[in-house]
Specification:
The protein is mostly helical. It is built from nine helices and no strands. Belongs to the sigma-70 factor family. ECF subfamily. Keywords: Sigma factor, Transcription, Transcription regulation. This is Sigma-70 family RNA polymerase sigma factor.
Length: about 200
């Protein structure tokens, strides 16, 4: 229990420092989460420049609204990932809608399918990054190296039952990305952190 409270204690202190306007706190937060934010933004927007802009927007929002984060609702990492996801989906939807209005290719239904797919992909990336290392290692062996559970067990030095358990749990976590549809929120995030995208 105390071990789980350590990150939340850091989260609470960071939120308090941001609320006091400590620029150094924003720098620490950026150093810790910029790659997560940029990666999620890029996964949704599929555009490096747009992901750069969105990363700045997310950290500007955090700086301007530090009280919007409530440590009792979950980790700061989850809140920031949820903000990123929400902003990225809004930006994608706005950009694609504007292109449709200008007479670009596609339909409103295709736009929603694109948004849904980008949403699910971003959520899956977040889930894989957040899952415990043993589950991630098992999935990587099975998916990228095309190992079955017996080979995975041998590679990881665990029993076959343990390899099956890790693969099953990892796949169950990944399945939540698809189940979330267009309004996903990272695992452990309360509904108010996810909301409709």
């Amino acid at each position: 229990m105390a071990k789980r409270d350590v990150p939340l204690r850091w989260d609470r202190k960071m939120q308090q420092r941001l609320a006091r306007g400590e620029a150094a706190a924003l720098g620490e937060l950026y150093d810790r989460f910029a790659s997560l934010v940029h990666g999620l933004a890029h996964r949704v927007l599929d555009d490096e420049r747009a992901a750069d802009h969105l990363t700045r927007d997310v950290f500007a929002h955090v700086w301007e609204h530090p009280d919007a984060y409530d440590p009792r609702q979950g980790p700061l990492r989850t809140w920031i990932a949820t903000l990123t996801h929400r902003f990225a989906v809004q930006r994608l939807r706005a950009t694609e809608t504007a292109a449709l209005v200008r007479g670009g290719p596609g339909t409103a239904e295709e736009l929603e399918t694109k948004v849904r797919r980008a949403s699910v992909a971003a959520r899956a990336d977040y889930i894989v990054q957040s899952m415990p290392a043993p589950l991630r290692a098992a999935l990587e062996l099975a998916y990228f190296q095309r190992r079955d559970y017996r080979q995975t067990a041998a590679d990881l030095g665990v029993t076959e039952d343990e390899a099956r358990r890790r693969l099953r749990l990892g796949l169950q976590l990944l399945a939540t990305a698809r189940d979330a549809g267009t309004a996903p929120h990272p695992p452990g995030a309360p509904p108010e952190y996810g909301g409709a995208a």
